[in-house]
Amino acid sequence: MTDPLLRVDNLQTHFDTADGVVRAVNGTSFTVSAGEIVGLVGESGSGKSVTARSIMGLQAPGQIVEGSIHFDGEDLTECSDRTLERYRGTRLSMLFQDPMTTLNPVFDVGEQIAESLRVHKHPKQSLLDFSHVPGFADRSSWRRNRERAVELMEQVGVADPADRVEAYPHELSGGMAQRAMLAIALAGDPDLLIADEPTTALDMTTQARILEQLRSLARETETAILLITHNLGVVAELCDRVVVMYGGEIMERGPTDRLLHAPEHPYTIGLRECLLDGTDAERLDSIDGRVPDCFEGGSGCAFASRCDFATVRCSVENPPVVDVTPDHEVVCSELEVVRTETEAAAAAETAGADIAVDGGTPLRSETGPDALGRRDAVGQDEAARSTADVELRSDEGHPGTPILEARDVTKTFDLSNSLLDRLFGTARTLRAIDDVDIAVHPGETVGIVGESGSGKSTLAKVLTGLHEPTGGEVRFDGEPANGLASRSAEQLADIGVVFQAPRSSINPRLTVREAIAEPLYEQGWNRERRDRRVEELLDLVDLPTAVADRRPGQLSGGQLQRIAIARAIALEPRVVVFDEPVSALDVSVRATLLNLLVELQDRLGLTYLVISHDLDVVRHLADRIAVMYLGEIVERGPANTLFERPSHPYTQALLDAIPRVDENDRSVTLAGPIPSSAERPTGCSFHPRCRYAVPKCSESVPDSRVIGAAASRCHLAEEVAATNDASREDDRTQPTRNP
Questions:
Q1: Binning pLDDT at 50, 70 and 90, where does residue 388 land?
Q2: What structural domains and CATH numbers belong to the chain?
Q3: I need a labelling partner for 448 at 20 to 30 A (CA). Which of 56, 209, 302, 402 fits?
Q4: What's the CA gap between 533 and 530, in Å, rounded?
């Protein structure tokens, strides 16, 4: 058996702080072989990213105080800085978690990919290598690197790659920036790729394409991949083995299928139970407490303070390493107790499910109200009910006027580079939103889904007044509200917004108290009243008042997201718009925050508009869903209907692209990237990528038609829905997966 390409033995990386020594990594050991994909999972603060940075020699200001990191037989902990620099970008490459803080803001994306190509060939660089002036740099070499940069951008699924390589980081969406970072990481053709949350900001179809690319990279070039992710579906889809970290230590490791379907450690079991499973349960399971700060001192199991099975021994004695099988290890003192109680709980759950099925009670009702209050009316005529559910701009079937509404809204952007473009008729226009109708009624949650570039965030900005529509009308409580300038103070206060990246949307120089109180200050609240309100808001989002005097850099991702929510509801708005509310959070924090959003809506009577790439999140929160593609709403209807019986091929493609822990089939990659809104296809915009397309799809624009409880803009909507009905019936007859 050949030696693994990477071997980490008893790695310990510590940080000296004013409060003591933080043991961020505390005795981690694992291997990664050539062509193998190993997943490193665990909550934020578990030590995953510090482990990755230690491998790359980028652990500063931390220090590796013990252990070794052998790469291809050489101990990286004993290498000189020059040797590490030679390895980085050539044999070792890392895709960092936050592309916006990693990409250089003063160079366009193409130049940064080209830099990686140059480093691969000539590790020693100078400032002149960035010059495009003849005589200072090889122009032909620069052109070749630029062409290769375009190829890499296309390879990772960026639309209009020739244009995008000329974009600067601030001109890219979060998903595009993540793909640009992946192109940079792949440019050097590394032997080991460390990917830290590579799919966090990506939509499902792009994620499926990236996963397929990573899988091909490992299979065809024998590249070893260490994948750090919160997404257990991605782990199930891609990884050969899994290492579970908590508190800087390894809790469990072994083959992916076994760890995800028959986990042994209480922490792994807890992570597994936090997953969204597509049921209508209003409250999700979560792991109580938080990851410890790992300050020096004490012994015992790191997870003991949060473990339901912990005994006194767990707090004072280091747990043993138990070999469940030759390739499966669990670090736990109470493993037999965990097994006994877990098996008993599983048996009771199975017995309960059998009773429910035998008794004839349906497990899910598409037409009845469920735990989330889906608004599928009972006892109405089918056609009338469908129209009420489907027509989001209509008042029919809903009490009162929509609180927020868009009527025939269009938003365009001028892509002209200069006045000469306009004078000579070469100007280009991007149609980000195309005649969109949508309405949100009081107390409900409407979800908007679609790939990056489909117009979701632009629509949200138009609805909130941050963008003024080019055509059509936005109405709030029946009154015109097209832009911020046309809105009254009451209308402005009635809409709160939680932006996609709280770390970049909250001023890092302000304390938490100042950040939350900023909208209150703008409304003229005095200091005493602001302070009382901040304390109320912190209590609402379940944060201690002690965090009020901290700054954003001192908070975790989950805490920051709660601060963003507190700020958004500070003025007691009636509508809150969420743009990717939980995209960067681990499964346990995500479950806790989704529970919080449901509780806040119930307590405060809020109305939600939720935009997300994560279709499971939208299904859990939303009463109705609108699916967007190239600025158009192509399908809309009740959440359960769109998930269980999609009638548009694009909706089906989004669902097929979701990686699942409990399914044998791999996610399906949708062919090609989303086209540019500046060069829209004729006929149905989706037909170039549609597996059902027929000639008329490219010749005429489809009308919206009612299919059951949904509406779909597709010539073949009935056929697609019937195909999905047949497929679902086949799934019912298949045996369930048995790990």
A1: very low
A2: 1-91+190-360 (3.40.50.300), 104-184 (no CATH), 382-503+555-625 (3.40.50.300), 642-733 (no CATH)
A3: 209
A4: 5
